[in-house]
Amino acid sequence: MGRMPELPEVETVRRELDPWLTRRTIVRARRADAPAGPKYAHLERADGQRIEAVTRRGKFLLLPLSGGDELVIHLGMTGIVSYTKPAGHLRVVVQLSGKRKSTLYFRDVRRFGRFLVLPRGDRGLLPSLRQMGPEPLSEAFDAASFHAALTSSSAIKTSLLSQRPVAGLGNIYIDEALWRARIHPLTPAKKISRNKAAQLRDVIVEVLLASIAAQGTTINDYRTVDGQVGAFVEQLDAYGHDGDPCSRCGRTISKIVVGARGTHFCPSCQRR
DNA sequence: CTCCCGTCCTGTGGGC
DNA sequence: TGCCCACAGGACGGGA
Questions:
Q1: What is the pLDDT of residues A212-225, one digit of tens each?
Q2: Structural domain contains residue A260
Q3: What is the tens place of the pLDDT at every residue in A194-204?
Q4: In this predicted structure, what is the pLDDT of residue A231?
Q5: Exposed e or buried b for every residue in A172-201, given b needs 16+ CB within 10 A?
Q6: Which of A69, A102, A129 is the last residue of a domain?
């Protein structure tokens, strides 16, 4: 257990979807084995619209459509997009124009994911997207503004989970970045010094780039679109390593609960 | 406004 | 061996 598509996994999926879906027309998009509701809203609006691009914002995939709408996909915990029909837990089916790979399937065992259509830029159903911080791999993610965004009194781990100081980080990469920057996960965000914030910014970029290069992290459910697994799991130093010796100092990695999330850190390298 | 906590969802794995 | 239940967590909504 314990895998979630975070920025590197979603970016890997985006790169695979882009050549497949861009310029294809959606013939028909419908819910399958899924309840009606905001997570699967307005799919029929996509019918007849062409997919103009496959973009990403944080952990959301955003597909602008030719009619002025936008297809929004969030993989949640267990969401998988494929062109082969899954065995079960099929939530959405999209018929595409053309003959090759012309059916898109969205499978999501736990239904934490979303697959919906909205007028482009309408964030009424997506408040986190509205308040999301800068993309970590963009120029906007600089040390000074990152430090300025760390205003919360809550733990840095919790603050980063909110997506507000920076977009796209989840449980795995937050633990990895805090380990690399030697910051205790319970440190109040606003107590992070300017220098530490700059260091944290740099290791966030490093760990995300390294994971993208490895096509993400596979622990259990995550697969790339063509079913491959991500190799970054081999480079994890903190997440899932509780009980193991710290690869830097040898002390045993601890696991605690922060914001209802399993949190892994080295009690020796990462002092409060 | 911020912060905190409950809720959703179901396969897996650890314990007995 | 087989059964049971705690566990995993991203985003969101509501209450303080």
A1: 999 887 655 545 55
A2: yes
A3: 999 999 999 99
A4: 81
A5: bbbbbbbbbbbbbbbbebeebeeebbbbbb
A6: A129
Whole-number Å distance between alpha carbons of A194 and A149? 11
Spacing of A193 CA from B10 C1' in Å? 42
Residues of A annotated as catalytic are 5-6, 59, 261
Beta strand A55-57 with A60-64 is antiparallel
Non-local CB neighbours of A126 within 8 Å, separated by 6+ positions: A60, A72, A118
Check if residue A36 sits with its Cβ under 7 angstroms from strand B. Answer: no
> Helix (H, G, I), strand (E, B), or coil: what is residue A26?
strand
* Distance from CA(A96) to C1'(B16), angstroms, rounded: 52
Residues A112 and A147 in one domain: no
